[in-house]
Amino acid sequence: MKNLASPDLDTANQADAPRALLASQRHTLHFMVVCLFLTAISALNGMHNSTTDSPSTPTQLNLFYAFVIGMEWLWVRFVYKGMRKYRRSIVEFFGRHTLTFKEFGKDVAYATLVFAIDYFCNAGLVGLLQHGAQPANAVLPAVPVGLLAVTLWVCLSLSAGVCEEIVFRGYLQRQLTAITGRLGIAILGQAILFGIGHGYEGIVSVLSIVLNGLVLGILAAWRGNIRAGILMHVAWDILAGFGIVS
Question: DSSP of 72-91, one letter per residue?
Fold first, then answer.
């Protein structure tokens, strides 16, 4: 019997990974319930508050960014605790045995390609549904100004890129693959949950983020790790903070 304490998941494709569960199915169910609950709360809050009620003063924004950073890492802690009981490690998602300069170069290339694909797909979707008008972003009501705000935004972007790829493309996608035996269902499932988790941003943003989740899920499956996805995710969020992408 294979020792789950030191699994070898650094394959070229997640479809070839062992179908051993990363955590209990109950843990995954709790994950989904909490995610849907938070989505419902944020969506209801968004319905009763206009964009003018979003944090707008420098102090409010800084506190809000710090709060979101903490929430991102709480998600990772939740995943870590569930996996620890099954003697699995989050490190598996990074493909540590395949990390060489050559492979990192490929990660950068794939991240750049996915960034371009996502940019044009997002522009096309927004243009189709909103005639080019970009949806409001409750998390970024204003461009960060000042050293502290810029630093916090970069830290938030790093946290979101790392944590959300660990949680959705690392844990959830592989766990759903193990549960269902179908990689396609797993990619679609994590993308939908990833998208509706941003329900407070409106339907157009949700659809855009679902599409982004699908692309990142396919990338994670193709590469067998989440490194390229993290690079793309972090770069996108940082540039969005300065209005370069949206």
Answer: HHHHHHHHHHHHHTTT--GG
